[in-house]
Amino acid sequence: MDISATKKQLPSDSKDAPLGPGSTHDQATAAEQLAAAAQSAIAAKAASLGAAFTGAATSSVVPYAMSDADSDFQQSFENCTIYWSPATGAHEIHGDIRVKYLERDWGLGLPVTDESGTPDLVGRYNHFANDGSIYYTPNTGPKVVQGAVRDYWASQGWERSMLGYPVRDCFTPGDGELAGDFQNGVIWIGSVDGAPRGYSDAAVAPITSDQLQNIVWHQFDAQLHKSPRNVGLHPDKSLDGVTDYAWGLDQSVNRGVMMTLNGFHDNGLLPDTDFSAHITVDLAVPNDLSRGPNDDYVLGAKVINRGVQASGIDSSDVASGISSAIDSFANISVATISADAPLLSLKTLSDGSARLFFSPTIAGRLAVLKANSEIADLAAGD
What we know:
The chain has helices at residues 4-7, 24-49, 51-54, 95-103, 147-156, 209-224, 315-328, 362-379, and strands at 62-63, 73-76, 80-85, 89-94, 116-117, 124-128, 132-137, 141-146, 178-182, 185-190, 198-200, 203-207, 231-242, 256-265, 273-284, 297-311, 332-337, 343-348, 354-358. α6 crosses α8 (362-379). It contains eight helices and 19 strands.
């Protein structure tokens, strides 16, 4: 930082400068000393990290733009940014955590740690001055965890708890509410039935693995029967596995359910051509940008991967036709949730089942009853 810029604030004629504590001269001197301390601390931090880590400097030492405090400073480098204040000391942020931190003003304040590895050796994190953190894994991306959600998650054991890592930034589903979405569950902070604000279990509508497979099977079978190619599905199907979460900056991509559907092409008097469709479906909630304020949530399962094998007469043509039919089948309806239902998350679990999480309010509990009924009907093919 060019400290001479601070000196220009001093009166040009020193005899006109007011003297004594709190004078302009004293304030300028304090600002110079603070700027010098920031420059020295950040330079020392950069030297300890090494040029191979930081890369070349891309700015001088400057006041931190997202802070109202005169004591917060930063310097940007090719590979990281170093922040300093007298209260926090000098700490660096880099990689995807830096991208997330600079995305907008999260109210996190300055970092109080360097980017560090988690105890399970999977993730990375920075803690910040204002009761917040950013956690990252290669499969989830960087996510902001703040306030009472962070406090509760910490009390459960952080990422080593049953909740796992965050898959979405903390959000406010309603007035006085705060929620965090994690790999294996949801943290909801609010007031239920007049109780003091705090943690409550979310209201949950479960979808068993069998129900999910049946929903996919019935809707695929109905779609295939619309084809003029005389094709349909055999009743046998199988769950083949579950993919991990996939990277996302604001929200991770949900786990995918891998399954096999077996079917046939009716060749009349000749033997059927059998096929197996190996598909991966991704359960998703439409984001806010794709919904109007009064639009219902149409929860869908979208095919994100497929492979078809066929055996028998014209097997190559049958496999190609089934692949095209799958590609044209955009979404499988899982449930329709009213626009005012307090939906928090739609989550696929590692056993191939899924959960709909709602705020544990009266509206949320009513939404669970409605979702349970619709899921049961769809699984039965109704």
